[in-house]
Fold this protein.
Amino acid sequence: MDVPQQGAKDIPVELQKNDSDSLIISIPLLQARYSGYKVSSESIEGLFVQNGVSLPLNLRPGAIVVNRPQTPLPPFVYKTEEVVFKNEAEGAELSGTLTYPVGYDKSSPVSVVLMVTGSGSQDRNEELFNHKPFLVIADYLAKNGIASLRYDDRGVGSSKGSTKDVTTLNYLSDAKAGISYLRSLGKFEKVGVIGHSEGGTIAFMLGADGCADFLVSMAGSAAVGVDVILGQNRIILQQKRVPQNIINDYISALKIIYKDRVARKEIADNSAYVAELCKANGYVLPDNLKANLKECITAGGEWFTWFLEYNPAEVISRVTCPVMALNGSMDMQVLCKDNLSVIKNNLPHNEKSVIKEYDSLNHLFQNCTAATALDYGAIEETISEKVLVDIAGWINSVVLP
């Protein structure tokens, strides 16, 4: 089962009954069940039951149609090339698309950017909710004289490599291999990086290690990892109008759980642990939030545990190349005020660097309101045109003498 509006794909479904006039399926992951009691070639009439709540749900054959006006379609007015580069140190082989600017001539100086995706396993376009932000950015850059390389994360699409117990450091290693590959081609004047979310954090790491000539961090987290996650949770609960006393208890409980997680505390029974935690501290939480707490004990694996501990401030303080750091005021995943302030306070002065907050843009840099900030799939815009203009203009200004 897919739920396009929530970005969920390939949810396992178990078929329990299927005959000429009825259908019963269960979805264990969601603790849900669907009973179709009237089946025909044109529709299925039935009930969807989850957590004791029963709702009518009638199904009809069809296709999800989404409007993504910014997604570029062939034929393209520039050249693209499918390439492969290797991270020999970790045995990863990364496949990607190298996009040349319109009218590319190797005798003229051209900048190139490596594009690094956000957290989770993502393809070269950073596709999410049928949006392809990296494809949109690559297209815009090509039309403004800038080359780019975007690639599938290891284990995604055509890329190969182990994903077991990987952390941001492994993805950093892959990105370094990408920059080395671009330099080895000898086709580009300057090699920079554009990173979104976790990719923005990696961009700062590349800058600190002297790998990049310039970097663009799009909503890159700069605060300590645990503070980023707690901030996310707080603002999302506020948006859902959860009472403030419950929010405070939940955030306090979550903070203790993450402290124990970082300390590698052994927990034999997640339910008993959460129950004792709430009882000992007087936290009063509804069952759904207690269930969330149980998931947080292990969710995200080693990657998440590493992220909770990571403090980017020291790395940011060692970046000497030009930096463009962007964030949207409606970002509910990497809160603008909490993260841009760290960058402002730690980034060494460089007259070419730009730190900018965009009003009314969310984590994907889509125009939104507070009520629609997380409705990525419902918003037709993939990325604000103003952001595209600013990024291309800034990169071209960086390469000037």
About this structure: The chain is about 35% helix and 20% strand. The longest helix spans residues 244-262. The radius of gyration is 23 Å. The chain has a mean pLDDT of 94.
